[in-house]
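Researcher: We're reviewing a set of sequences before deciding which ones to prioritize for further study. For each one, I'd like a predicted 3D structure that I can look through quickly. This is Glucosamine/galactosamine-6-phosphate isomerase domain-containing protein. If possible, include the structure in token form so it fits the rest of the review sheet.
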Amino acid sequence: MEFKNETDIKIVAKFVANKIIDKLKSGRTVLWFVPGGSAIAVAAETSRIIAKFSHSNLSVTLTDERYGPPGHQDSNWQGLLDAGLRLPEAKLIQVLTGENIINTTSKFNDILKQELDGANYRIGLFGIGENGHTAGIMPGSVAVSDEHLACWYKAEKFDRITLTSKAIQRIDEVIVFAKGEAKWKTLQDLEGEEDVTKQPAQILKRVPLLTIFTDYKKDL
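Model: Here's the predicted structure for Glucosamine/galactosamine-6-phosphate isomerase domain-containing protein, in token form for your review sheet.
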């Protein structure tokens, strides 16, 4: 786990894009997980950089989604599109299908298995919440221990469909964007060994390569 004291969106996006572009140039098929929330702007800017290069071997899907009809106003995927996510050569995989949440989650689980198995490199851009959540895995939720690659549950504000810890542990590299003093205590706890049920972001430390861009600890 490496902390980088940087939160400029363009700089972080260039870092993420270069990772993906380098893998694509080497002939690998890449699966990129994109987030909702405060990291949407980073994902959109990253896509603008990638789009200048050949990216037909790139697949893109979400870390988590808020259930509803495709394109609903609180959808993470719609938020990414509205922010400017455009990758004309890539395989773009949205979660919402217009079906009920059970069928939608089941199909997402099947897609995840296919894409994780088929990719040569799996990389994710994630956020971390003030409460220690990452993707749609809230503290105490079933997503921490669910044995599938994707699961759904009723959260406080939305019915959520999310990657599980099992899926995250199949990712090769994760880049986190965590900006704001409200998240500093969470990041401090991340350096320790908190219970993953209480701080799901601890799961990210099980990924082989983890880089966290943040304004936490100005002396880094």
